[in-house]
Amino acid sequence: MASNLAPIPELYVSYESAQKLKVEAGNLMSHDLTPRQICDLELLMNGGFNPLKGFLTEEDYDSVVETMRTKDGALWPMPVTLDVSEKFAETVELGQDIALRDQEGVILATMTVTDKWEPNKSREAEKVFGADDSAHPAVNYLHNHAGKIYLGGPVTGIQQPVHYDFRARRDTPNELRAYFRKMGWRKIVAFQTRNPLHRAHQELTFRAAKEAQANLLIHPVVGMTKPGDVDHFTRVRCYEAVLDKYPSSTTHLSLLNLAMRMGGPREALWHAIIRKNHGLTHFIVGRDHAGPGKNSQGEDFYGPYDAQELVRQHQEEVGIEMVDFKHMVYVQEKAQYYPIDEVPEGSTVLNISGTELRRRLAEGIEIPDWFSFPEVVKELRRTKPPRAKQGFTVFFTGFSGSGKSTIANALMVKLMEMGGRPVTLLDGDIVRKNLSSELGFSKEHRDLNIRRIGYVASEITKNGGIAICAPIAPYAATRRAVREDIENFGAFIEVHVATSIEECERRDRKGLYKLAREGKIKEFTGISDPYDVPESPELRVETEGTDVDNCAHQVILKLEQMGLIAG
Ligand code: PPS
Q1: Cis before 51 (ω within 30)
Q2: Digit-coded pLDDT (tens) for 316-360
Q3: Is 301 annotated as a binding residue?
Q4: Ligand 1 touching residue 210 (CB < 6 A)
Q5: pTM for this prediction
Q6: In CATH, what class is 15-157?
Q7: Residues near 160 by Cβ (< 8 Å), separated by ≥ 6?
Q8: Which CATH architecture fits 167-256+262-383?
Q9: Ligand 1 center–CA 432 separation, angstroms
Q10: Which residues contact 287 (CB under 8 A, 6 or more apart)?
Q11: How many CB atoms lie within 10 A of CB 506?
């Protein structure tokens, strides 16, 4: 199939109208878009999400969730919704125009709100992502990050979000279409990725293009990918290093500002539609496309080839041909890559999994040339030094009086004795004096307090230091959010100081338990306020019958075991 490279509709108004709208929008209510919404809006406006004309209305949303189609029957597998807080939703009337702004307050679009509703998020999770299980990143996002209310309605585009990085590598669907027209490319295979390209991917994409007798577009996602992925700055430098491994003038690199949901089969189909909109004729779908990892039972959310199956069923309707690829492995005797089902019998197969690669990077172990290109490995090592040189956060949690601060202090001194990295202690009391002096102990205030600690710890971790935090941090969801923030930059070691509430109350070093029992302190953790016991912390220390030195030493041993401090 050859592409029709005519321009596709965008939602932008003319330059003159945009200038006028910008001024008029000064009087409108404003919604500050989240990072994910900015990605969605960009693709809505530039036609990447064609045929959508705005954020889904309630009817379209229900239909997309249940049937993967809008109410008019257009194939659309992924809800693209504008979630807002209840507070904001209350101030918006149906029929009203609102301004959609980026995080600096720059107006990007207006939206006429035609619909406002409270979605059934559990149903969305079940139908769209296959399970209402918060181990799935999109389900976690849905329940723990997205606002409670959805607004729907048509969007009027004013301007694209500004990107300061890799400008020359970013193309709208119409820019890509124009590029293909200019180059005379009629058949183009797209390769979607959120990972650095290694030899197996280079081989796979090269073969795909050769088999389809087509040109190749490396089309990596640089919007939002899976938490913990290699950041897009590093990845783009890696892609650039691989570009000249392809025959010249056959391959192009373009960055896609998509916010992935890791929705497996539905997401693969969505990706295919998005690629069709960008003027592509073929789309590579490999093993476990857009897979979210394991569910809370430790099983895969989707079968390895479910995504291929769904795309195959709909490829004709979408108007893009799927190039399905099996897992590629290296055959030692042939010094060459093969799809796993074509490996010559009796030969030696070499493979390095993603987990193994991360381990080798973390521990500074050699990564062989047959696996990746030296330029790519160099870039990855530049971003991720071995673990013993990275920053990390030790996050103590437990009741007041459990011994968190004492152990944290002992740990700090031991780490300072070792030297090598700066150490900062963010103790509960210190933080409440310096960072959170205006906060009390309501759920909202505790969350804010912990998020602040998490933010500071993530900055310390990012910059190669050691952050030791010792708040009560009673809520599992907040601890998880902090973990996610920090794990973008380094390890997060949750240490549950598991002193029982009875023992803490018996010790009552600050006399607070007595006051709490007398009702003189309200919302006291463990007495009149909840504490979610960590289910699987990296370490649990028992303080009853164990001295402080030994508890701190247990943490040191854990850090050594994790490769965070040289043994
Ligand atoms: S939280 O929930 O993580 O924000 O709490 P944190 O910042 O660690 O602050 C806990 C310290 O504040 C004292 N304190 C209370 N704790 C729990 N509940 C209530 N209502 C409360 N009021 C005051 C208490 O001394 C805690 O200090 P630690 O060091 O944990 O004993």
Answers
A1: yes
A2: 999 999 998 878 899 999 999 998 889 999 999 998 988 899 889
A3: no
A4: no
A5: 0.76
A6: alpha beta
A7: 42, 45, 46, 108, 172
A8: 3-Layer(aba) Sandwich (3.40)
A9: 9
A10: 304, 305, 325, 326, 327
A11: 12
